[in-house]
Amino acid sequence: MSEEQPVDQEATATNDAPPEAAATATAIAPDDLAGQLEAEKGRSAELLDSWQRARAEFLNYKRRVEQEKQRDAQMAGLIVIAKVLPVLDDFELAMAHVPKGAENESWLNGVALVAHKLRSVLESEGVQPIAAAGQKFDPALHEAVMVEGEGGDFVVAELRRGYTLHGNVIRPALVKVGKSST
Hints:
Elements: H1 9-15, H2 19-26, H3 30-96, H4 106-124, E1 127-129, E2 142-147, E3 154-160, E4 163-165, E5 168-171, E6 173-178
Parallel strand pairs: 2-6
Antiparallel strand pairs: 1-4, 3-6, 4-5
């Protein structure tokens, strides 16, 4: 019961061929190689360009994220500073209205030191008071809430101090405007 399978003569003939014959059968013409080389050079240039663009986009993204972090940190600081400014106002108001005879009390010196320390901390963070009294009225820095006489364009009194943070107005100064006293 043995059946013989037919043998494919063509398949055995190519398997028995010498290796040189196979090499010549798959050999590529030099013109084809040059064309393939140029095509690969073009593809390589495209990939390099694509990589350079992706790298530049990533660096821009990284820089943008860092700027956003800094801005967010400044905004968080700004919120806290804006909440602390009324406390500083209260200290300054209290120091301006010390009752007669209490000027030499030790507790008053302590309150003055705390107010000074608070001012120093705010200044170290970049908070600066806005100059107001005697200055020409500037709507970007001053908020006029009172007018003296016929009005004018000079600040004659500061009702509440204003502040800037790194050159940006946190809170405008509340002022009384009028004519210059000079």
